[in-house]
């Protein structure tokens, strides 16, 4: 498994390494070098199936008649 490096967004100092496991919650880390707060949140993958829109117009949300 590949190791991912998490670096500071301000000075690029290495903060920690992870094996790619999802940590499941929001994490805030203060960089010891530049004192910047780094806010990390879990990455969610997009849903593999798009939900049905039930005839709603994607631009304004109003219903429109379906033509087939």
Structure description:
This protein has a domain at 4-40. Helix content is 0%, strand content 25%. It is an all-beta fold.
Instruction: Estimate what percentage of residues fall within beta strands.
Output: 25-35%
Low-confidence stretches: none
Straight-line distance between termini: 49 Å
Spatial order of the strands forming the largest sheet: 1-2
Oligomer: single chain
Secondary structure class reads mainly beta
Radius of gyration: 21 Å
Order of helices and strands: EEEE
**Dominant shape:** elongated
Q: Mean pLDDT, rounded to whole units?
A: 76
Biggest beta sheet summary:
2 strands, antiparallel
Q: Give me the count of strands.
A: 4
Q: State the helicity in percent bands.
A: under 10%
Keywords: DNA-binding
Region (Disordered): 39-68
GO molecular function: DNA binding
Organism: Loktanella gaetbuli
């Amino acid at each position: 498994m590949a190791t991912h490096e998490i670096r500071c967004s301000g000075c690029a100092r290495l903060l920690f390494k992870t094996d790619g496991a999802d940590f499941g919650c929001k994490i805030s880390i203060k960089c010891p070098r530049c004192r910047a707060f780094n806010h990390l949140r879990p990455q969610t993958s997009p849903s593999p199936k798009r939900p049905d829109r039930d005839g709603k117009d994607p631009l304004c949300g109003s219903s429109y008649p379906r033509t087939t």
